[in-house]
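BUG-237 | component: ligand-complex export | severity: low

The export step for biotin jobs runs without errors, but we want the raw record kept on the ticket for reference. Input record follows.
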Amino acid sequence: MQKIHFKSLSSTNDYVRENIENLNDKTLITADQQTAGKGRSSRSWISSEKNNLYFSLLLKPKYNFRNDNLASLTQYVALVLTKVFKSYNVDAWIKWPNDILVENKKISGVLTETMIQGSDLLGIVIGIGVNLNLSEMKIAEIDQPATSLNILLGRSVDKEEFLEIFLKEFFNRYSILLEGGFSLIKDEYIERAMFLGKKVRITVFDKVFVGIAKNIDNQGRLILDNNKIINIGDMLC
Ligand code: BTN
């Protein structure tokens, strides 16, 4: 696995996008700081703190796997993150599709981008930000309830250690996930889902759907109580 580290970058995801043709499958890009860290839905991701974790993983799977397996990769990452937190004895939960919450506050986010040229898949960039070592003051700057692992543990957290546990856990089932898809992890995902049975509001581009989150189907899609099935969106609950 190729690992490239930068002291500062605009965004680890953008770096991978811009250099995708020269980077190998399974390249890891880390940065101590990002000057234009991106979140989902055009939000920004505060990335000024050097002891926090900002990284992107480039995947260039060789065979043409099914599209829904691609979508489930990002939900797999969310599940993997809950397992990493568990190794620190921290109980983390998934807010669909891939936000990680502890005590109902965000601790980690995933931004997956797919690079396609014509009908070819150039690669998948999985960008992950984890609040590992944030001060209460920085947390207050975040536009939603948030927490950080150092605060939960009462000590600072080693970035390298967290990343190593993540990579080990991720590659443990990565290949079988690509072949088997979401149904392989569905039960585990549901066990960590904090939103089922709750009233949710999902924004999908310019549309908003409201209902009770009833279930997750075999492709990782959200099913509301009015039987509306949602592929992707931003959840408020
Ligand atoms: C979210 O909105 O929850 C997703 C946040 C993803 C942030 C990470 S930090 C590393 C990578 N580079 C970026 O610019 N964004 C992702």
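Assignee comment: Attached the raw record above. The first strand starts at residue 2 and ends at 9.
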